[in-house]
Amino acid sequence: MSQYMYLHVCKVGHTGGDTDSGNFTECAGPVYVANSVCAPVTAKMGQSSSSLYTNFKSEYMFTCD
Q1: Residue 58 scores a pLDDT above 70
Q2: Whole-number Å distance between alpha carbons of 58 and 65
Q3: Are 60 and 40 in contact (CB under 8 A)?
Q4: What DSSP designation does 60 have?
C-alpha cells in the first residue's frame, strides 16, 4: 500500500536544495547536495500530505569528514 512521503535536503546556507515527494510503497529519495556536507533534512510521512504521522526537521548543519 502506498503512502505520502516527502524528503527535502537543504543546501548550505538554506539556498534551495533537493526534494522528492509523492505516494510511494517503500521510500522517497534519493535527494542530493554538494559532497562532504551534512545538511538540514525535512522528512514527512502519512496517509496524505494533510494527514501526517511523521514530520521531522533537523536543525543542525555541519561539514562531514
Answers
A1: yes
A2: 19
A3: yes
A4: -
Instruction: Pick 33 or 43 by higher pLDDT.
Output: 43
Q: What is the dihedral of CA 43, 48, 50, 54, to 10 degrees?
A: -30
Query: Closest by alpha carbon to 48, among 10, 22, 20?
Result: 22
CB-count exposure of residue 5 (10 Å: 0-12, 13-18, 19+): buried
Q: Can you point out the beta strands (E) in the chain?
A: 3-10, 17-24, 37-38, 41-48, 51-57, 62-63
Q: pTM of the entire structure? A: 0.76
Per-residue model confidence (pLDDT) at position 65 = 46
